[in-house]
Amino acid sequence: MTPVVKICGLSTPATLEAALDAGADMVGFVFFPKSPRHVDWATARALGRQARGRAKIVALSVDADDDALRRIIDALAPDLLQLHGRESPARVKQIGEFCARPTMKAIGVAAREDFAAAEPYASAADFLLIDAKPPQDAALPGGNGRPFDWGLARDFNPHRPWLLSGGLDPETVEAAIALSGACGVDVSSGVERAPGEKDPARIRAFVAAARRAFARAAEGVG
Questions:
Q1: Whole domain around residue 65: which residue ranges?
Q2: pTM metric for this prediction
């Protein structure tokens, strides 16, 4: 897998431009009203136009029904659908076929045994996202800024491209890549100055740090 840097939860033209200028491979937009990163339909249309052709556009939803998915497709025309709820493998496969888009399924991890939950999705989703498992009382299924033991992912080989998330920021992403062996990283809260408020400087720093780590990994430098 070619290394991938994804900036998720973008919601303004200025912060999206910072991610695009920094060279992010994927830019993510959240369709989940409980999230401080949620975007409305008009905003999604404008941001989609801004990003089109410059990075892969990812739409994040949480247990969305078919009607909501249709509206997301109409507003954003994403390249990829990120599913961050309790969607079953069958539902993930159905969404990919219904929307005619590749899918990325998020899997919450806190311990080594949690990776077993990813196995049924390896044949249903086009990408997997390994994220920190949220606390039981969390209002959001992701974007909580919680790390986990990234070294647990070192031997993860689902025969699908996968990205690492959970507690990443400009200061930790290099270590996370070295420990996990990940070829893709996804950040949201780690490049914010406040919940839902992205920091352009931190976006640029994150992309640069991830690129350094991927270059070292390619050279075999730990």
A1: 4-218
A2: 0.93
